[in-house]
Design a protein that fits this description.
With 218 residues, this protein is of the alpha/beta class. 39% of the residues lie in helices and 14% in strands. The protein contains eight helices and nine strands. The strands form three sheets. The chain has a five-stranded parallel sheet with strand order 3-1-4-5-8, sandwiched between helices. The chain has a two-stranded antiparallel ribbon with strand order 2-9. Strands 6-7 form a two-stranded antiparallel sheet. Strand 4, helix 3 and strand 5 form a beta-alpha-beta unit. Helix 3 packs across helix 4. The chain is globular and about 45 Å long.
């Protein structure tokens, strides 16, 4: 009898998105994540660039996931990068108010369908000042942790683990993870090398949660 596939849905922004070959070497960790899991797990990457926790919902993207996700599936939610853009009011969310409210909608959609939501804090950027990697989106990371605590939702602190990893390997190596190494400007989006490393950190985060899905991390 064939093993039942475990389905994982990804809701996120450009740092998670799957890019086609025309955008190479730009990549999001969502296009690499399957490499760190056994073939029993299949990923459906709904992440798309420029979306905040709000616009992902207002454009109907969460609703589409809700139509597909089933009992026993997982929903990974990484939002926050675009929520902080005050100059784009259609995207912007206030971290401790709207952002938390929008995150609750993702959790609700998953739980109503008996799926398992997992919150993932925004991933680190190449923000390097005076020999130190700095964590961005602090209020959004904190607000997400509050939601995880209040709603008893699993959480992977990808901001923390990515910054810790960057610090371990040093600036020269981390520079190659980001598109600045290709275009001289972009300290947010990943090269294939960087996306692969972030996917590995997410898989390690899943393993550490010690849940059913953890057993399928390679």
């Amino acid at each position: 009898m064939e093993n039942k596939k475990i389905n994982v849905y990804l809701a996120g922004d450009s740092t998670v998105q799957t890019y086609d070959s025309s955008r190479a070497p730009q990549a999001g960790w969502g296009q690499c994540i399957a490499d760190y899991f056994t073939d029993d797990v299949q990923f459906f990457n709904h992440a798309i660039g420029g979306r905040s926790s709000k616009t992902f919902i207002t454009e109907g993207r969460l609703e589409k996931i809700g139509q597909e996700i089933k009992e026993g599936d997982y929903l990974f939610i990484q939002m926050g990068h675009n929520d902080s853009t005050k100059s784009r009011p259609e995207r912007y969310t206030e971290p401790y108010e709207d952002y938390k409210e929008y995150l609750l909608q993702y959790i609700k959609v998953a739980r109503e369908r008996k799926a398992i939501p997992i919150l993932i804090t925004p991933v680190g950027r190449l923000h390097y000042v005076r020999g130190e990697f700095l964590a961005d989106f602090g209020d959004y990371c904190n607000a997400m942790k509050e939601v995880a605590e209040e709603e008893d939702v699993l959480l992977i602190d990808l901001m923390k683990t990515s910054i810790q990893y960057f610090t371990t390997i040093g600036y020269e190596e981390v520079h190659r993870f980001f598109m600045i190494s290709v275009n001289g400007a972009d300290c947010t989006h990943f090269t294939e090398k960087g996306a692969n490393e972030m996917a590995r950190l997410v898989s390690e985060g899943i393993k550490a949660l010690n849940i059913e899905l953890s057993h399928f991390v390679k």
